[in-house]
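Q: My labmate handed me this sequence with no annotations at all. I'd like to see what the chain might look like in three dimensions before we decide whether it's worth expressing. Could you predict it?
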Amino acid sequence: MQHRISVKALIIDGGRILLPLHRDDAGLYYILPGGGQEPGETLAAALVRECREELGVEVEVGELVGARDYIGRHHEFAATNDNHQVELMFRCTFVGGTPGTGTAVDDRQIGAEWIEIAQLAGVRFYPKRLAEILVARGDARFGYLGDVN
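A: Here is what I predict for the chain of 149 residues:
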């Protein structure tokens, strides 16, 4: 089983959250920006790099607010059932840049958008459990989510 550490950004400003927009066979969906930590890279440096690459924006990394496991064999979207990702989620402050101008977007990413947090309940957003928490409580610490999607 492959094990990976991943960092994710919650870039929240004025009741909105900045998210990469993706498309698959079922339509549009959103996920948190971020990705894998490289050897020798701090968590904060990885998150700054990932936000530049995926979104084209600069962020200031704040406090760790939550975490989740993603064990592929338990979820329908895993490319392989042999992966286990630990995601560490940090509150981040938008510093500048133009959302959607990232240089290393994946095949499914088609842009980036500011979404009203209240609207997360009506769109495809992963992890779904985090959308429920954000809609109910806004920008809060939420701790460990478990193995959720």
